[in-house]
Amino acid sequence: MNLCLVEHLDGVATDASLQAFTLAAGLGGETHALVIGPGGAEVAATIPAAVVYVAEHDALDAFAPDAWAAILCAMPSRTGVTAIVAPGSARATDAMARAAVRLGEPLAANCISATPGNPLLLTRIRWGGSLLEEARLHTDCALLTVVPHTLPAVAPGSPGAVERFTPELADADLVVRVRERVAPPAGGVSLTDAKVVVTGGRGVGSAEGFVVVEELAGLLGGAVGCSRAVTMSGWRPHTDQVGQTGNKIAPEIYIACGVSGATQHIAGAKGAKRILAVNTDPEAPIMSVADYAVVGDLHEVLPAISAELRRRRG
Amino acid sequence: MKALVCVKRVPMTGGRIVLTDDEQAIETKHLGFAISPHEECGVEEAVRLVEAHGGESVVLTLGPPDAEEQLRDAMAIGADRGIHLVTDGEEWDPEATAGAIVAAVIADETASGPFDLILFGNESADSGGFQTGLRVAYALGRPCATGLKAVAVGDGSFRCEQEEGGGRNVYELPLPAVVTVLEGLNLPRYPSVPGRMRAGRKPLEASTPERPASRLERARLVVPAGESKQAEILGHGADAASAVVDLLEQIGVTS
Fold first, then answer.
1. How many domains would you assign to chain A?
2. Distance between CA B168 and CA B165 in Å, rounded?
3. pLDDT category, A76, cuts 50, 70, 90?
4. Could you tell me the fold of the domain covering B2-207?
5. How many angstroms separate the CA of residue B136 from the nearest CA in chain A?
């Protein structure tokens, strides 16, 4: 029997959770689900699990990772599960790592596939997805997180049963708890939601050089990104960085200008539907992941594209 | 403020990852090495906290003899001393790594007093286990917040911030605590030449822990297929503008 941790936002199960459910269901046997916190009962009604457990407690209105871990740890004895699967979001990964320590088990983070058996055969990602690891997990209770956006989401459906319960939480489980929530800044197009992302790399040459990148992004209603080399040079803030240690983007088109295409960068751009590279070097690594390319200096190419866009708009 | 920052030596992979013949590791013959990115910010933050509040910053790594390079890099930007848990170069899993770090922390604290703060990267660039810091925190019985983009020491408490959904979650932890940080926490400084000179003379304590067997056993590494494409060349220089705008119109992103 397997258990999937289902996260929810604004009353809806997250896509990453429903994708994790797909992996859990593939392990065979019944799949149960666990939903934590306010609004859980409504979410439970949409999850096609044999049983959905809903943990309800006054202290769960703000995220407390040790409390989530305490709830996860109570599940094996409650349900007899032999695998706990969770989405690879920041929250769920944090809670699963804590649960693994408490249960004295390993945690296999960021899996993309799992074949049942003992040992369990896993494929997990390294280097933000630039490398895969095939591994054998030797344990009676496997703890796995699943890379978002690699597996199909399970279709919503009715659960066999819903069981609401109040978990026992110790004071120590609530020491680390969100005290305050600062809302996102208003306005602007966020990198992670933008339909067009125009990124500048080392080839931009300076902070001032980003004017041409900003102009094109502005005309297309898109967002400006940058590579790690740019952030490390202090030309742009880290919040603009696309890459394994920056933002993961998923635009309709990603226009990468003066970016060499290091694996660290590409790991953040894998979600892009199309990549257009603008680079003086036709042999740059970015060319082997791009769908389209313009060979040339971005300081000439970008203003020409912006001018052409303006000309056609009249 | 006594701060410990734990770092990992990782190869700088560049454009294309090549594996060794036995598919157990990345071929690193032609690669340089660095401190894993999140941890580089951890080192900078530990040094800043000690600059602001006084005390001592210590850097620790578990890795092969060559990982001394990363300890010296950290000392070059200001860490006061190093602890090297020397391995034979085989990979240690998160449970084993945390176990060795906990033993080293307890030994150091017994000899020279407790750490107020222990910093880790949220996850390493290479194996990405997302758990070593939490394992150490639990073993030491200290609170831990993860994935931090801002930290500030106040009167006996510690305020830290995590980005989520474009906004921020704020935590307040009692000290001593363990935190895991993300790149973007700060902009790490470059080491100066005098900094490098001083780093060579700073104290470094080395020991050789035993590696226990792993329950997450690596079978092999695989470079994902289908990564290599042949880009369609839309043109050269400014003359390509028309073809690019045609493409943007076709995708429907120009309006």
1. 2
2. 8
3. confident
4. Rossmann fold (3.40.50)
5. 9
| Domain assignment of residue A264, yes or no | yes
Q: Is residue A283 located within the same domain as residue A239?
A: yes
Structural domain of residue A206, as residue ranges? 196-313
Answer whether B43's CB lies under 8 Å from B156's CB. no
Could you tell me which chain A residue has the CA closest to the CA of B235? Answer: A294
Q: Is the per-residue pLDDT at A38 higher than 90?
A: yes
Residues A164 and A213 in one domain: no
Output the average pLDDT for chain B: 95
Asked if residue B39 has pLDDT above 90, the reply is yes
Same domain? For A143 and A216 the reply is no
* DSSP β-bridge partners for residue B59: B5, B82
pLDDT higher than 70, residue A165: yes
A33: left (phi over 0), alpha (psi -120 to 50) or beta: beta
Q: Which of A126, A145, A308 sits opposite B126 (nearest CB)?
A: A126
Q: Does some domain include residue A50?
A: yes
Beta-carbon separation of B167 and A181 below 8 A: yes
Q: At A89, which CATH number?
A: 3.40.50.620
Our CA dihedral for A58, A62, A66, A70, rounded to 10 degrees, sits at 40
Cβ contact A148:A87 at 8 Å = yes
Q: Chain B closest CA to A1's CA: distance in Å?
A: 21
**Amino acid letter for position B61:** T
8 Å CB contact of B221 and A130: no
For residue B19, the 8-state DSSP code is B
Rg (CA), chain B: 21
Which chain A residue is nearest to residue B187, measuring alpha carbons?
Answer: A232
Q: What residue has token string 């539907």?
A: A273
Answer whether B251 sits within 8 Å of A253, measured CB to CB: yes
Across the interface, of B145, B221, B231, the residue whose CB is closest to A131 is B221
Q: Is the pLDDT of residue B226 over 80?
A: no
Quote the tokens at residue B220.
């092999």
Band (pLDDT 50/70/90 cuts) for residue B227 is low
Say if the Cβ atoms of A102 and B187 lie within 8 Å.
no
Preferred mutation among B239, B244, B247 to probe A, highest tally of A CBs within 10 A: B244
List the single residue in A with minimal CA-CA distance to B215.
Answer: A138
Enumerate the residues of chain B whose CB falls inside 8 A of the CB of residue A73: none
| A302 Cβ contact partners less than 8 Å away, ≥ 6 residues apart | A198, A212, A213, A215, A216, A257, A278
**Does one domain contain both A147 and A224?**
no
CB within 8 Å: B217 and A293: no
Q: In what order do the strands lie in the sheet with A223-226?
A: A223-226, A196-200, A253-257, A275-279, A292-295, B232-236
Assign residue A258 a region (left: φ > 0; alpha: ψ between -120 and 50; beta: otherwise). left
